[in-house]
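lol forgot to send this yesterday, sorry. struct tokens for the thing we talked abt
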């Protein structure tokens, strides 16, 4: 796996170029596509049409991550993962009256 030997410089791994301009361009496309998805949802468009727009959005986000090496974040700041917030909630206690007598 590792062919390093004393006295030899380690081989440099090829790194995907981080193109800021491409990232900015993709970010603008992602924002526009996100707006389109929100518009379709608010207009109660056909589910197939919304799903197609979401797939395009996910593809753009994948391209962004490939180009920049990091996940796309909205311009407003870092989005908080919703799943972690839900796991912190305490389960509601059941009323004692629901217990079998």
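and heres what i got for the seq, position by position
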């Amino acid at each position: 796996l590792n062919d390093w030997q004393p006295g030899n410089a380690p081989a440099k791994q090829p790194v995907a170029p981080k193109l800021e301009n491409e990232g900015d361009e993709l970010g603008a496309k992602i924002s526009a596509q996100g707006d389109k998805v929100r518009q379709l949802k608010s207009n109660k468009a056909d589910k197939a049409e919304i799903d197609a727009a979401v797939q395009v959005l996910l593809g753009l986000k994948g391209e962004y991550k490939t180009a920049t090496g990091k996940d796309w974040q909205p311009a407003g700041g870092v989005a908080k993962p919703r799943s972690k917030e839900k796991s912190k909630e305490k389960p509601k206690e059941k009323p004692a009256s629901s217990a079998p007598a």
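The chain has a mean pLDDT of 74. anyway ping me if u want another try
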